[in-house]
């Protein structure tokens, strides 16, 4: 299966090397594609069968992919702090995971995200509202990141929302302002 055109269409934004994370990777079509483009990839999914398939494909193709089983819907899921230059999520939605995704991005890191909207339920699966974005919701979930591109609507007989964001070089928080204000005055 080919990677989504949302990812391949933004290939020019990818770094020539670095670390990538494919969240809910399934059989690894995006992880393997990223590895072929020079990135060291961590692919995670809760399906042991899918992870075994990704690991075998990476081994056969001599690609730098670490495939790991992880239940992304546990309340204490940690993806690391500033660990990845690129994070890709396709056809997966767990709203509570967004803070961990943002935390795992390095400064200037790229998030490429695409998943289904509520309109998709009229076409068939998925139909559970927990797995479907409300109109405009993806932009809200990625607040604090710099939006480089986005789309929402019908694409390829699917109703999806997609976004490409970059993490700012430095995230300014109240504690950062207070610290910098007290140090340089």
Secondary-structure blueprint:
Layout: H1 5-8, E1 18-23, H2 29-36, E2 39-45, H3 48-61, E3 65-69, E4 84-90, H4 98-104, E5 105-116, H5 137-141, E6 146-155, E7 158-166, H6 174-183
Parallel strand pairs: 1-2, 1-4, 2-3, 4-5
Antiparallel strand pairs: 5-7, 6-7
Tell me roughly what share of residues is in helical segments: 25-40%
Largest sheet: 7 strands, mixed
CATH architecture assignment name: 3-Layer(aba) Sandwich
Question: Unreliable stretches, pLDDT < 50, 5 or more residues?
Answer: 175-185
Distance from N terminus to C terminus (CA atoms, Å) equals 58 Å
CATH superfamily: Vaccinia Virus protein VP39
Overall number of structural domains: 1
Major sheet strand order: 3-2-1-4-5-7-6
Mean pLDDT: 90
3D shape: globular
What is the class in the CATH system? Alpha Beta
By oligomeric state, this entry counts as: single chain
Number of helices: 6
Radius of gyration: 17 Å
Order of helices and strands: HEHEHEEHEHEEH
Content-based structural category: alpha/beta
CATH topology grouping: Rossmann fold
Bin the strand percentage.
Answer: 25-35%
Count of extended strands = 7
Structure summary:
By secondary structure, the chain is of the alpha/beta class. It has six helices and seven strands.
Describe this structure in words.
This protein is α/β, with parallel strands linked by helices and 185 residues long. It has a single domain (5-183), classed as 3-Layer(aba) Sandwich (Rossmann fold). It has six helices and seven strands. Strand 1 (18-23), helix 2 (29-36) and strand 2 form a beta-alpha-beta unit. It is globular, with a radius of gyration of 17 Å. The N and C termini lie far apart (58 Å). Residues 175-185 have low confidence and may be disordered.
């Amino acid at each position: 299966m080919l990677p989504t055109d949302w990812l391949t269409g933004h290939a020019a934004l990818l770094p020539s090397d670095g670390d990538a994370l494919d969240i809910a990777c399934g059989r690894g079509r995006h992880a393997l594609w990223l590895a072929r483009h020079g990135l060291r990839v961590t692919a995670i999914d809760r399906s042991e069968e899918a992870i075994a398939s990704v690991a075998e494909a990476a081994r056969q193709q001599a690609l730098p992919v670490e495939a790991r089983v992880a239940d992304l819907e546990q309340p204490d899921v940690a993806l690391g702090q500033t660990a990845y230059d690129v994070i890709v999520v396709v056809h997966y939605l767990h709203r509570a995971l967004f803070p961990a995704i943002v935390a795992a991005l390095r400064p200037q890191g790229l998030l490429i995200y695409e998943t289904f909207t509520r309109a998709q339920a009229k076409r068939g699966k998925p139909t559970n509202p927990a797995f479907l974005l409300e109109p405009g919701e993806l932009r809200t979930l990625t607040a604090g990141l710099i939006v480089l591109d986005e789309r929402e609507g019908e694409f390829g007989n699917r109703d999806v929302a997609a976004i490409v964001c970059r993490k700012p070089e430095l995230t300014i928080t109240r504690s950062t302002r207070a610290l910098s204000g007290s140090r340089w005055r």
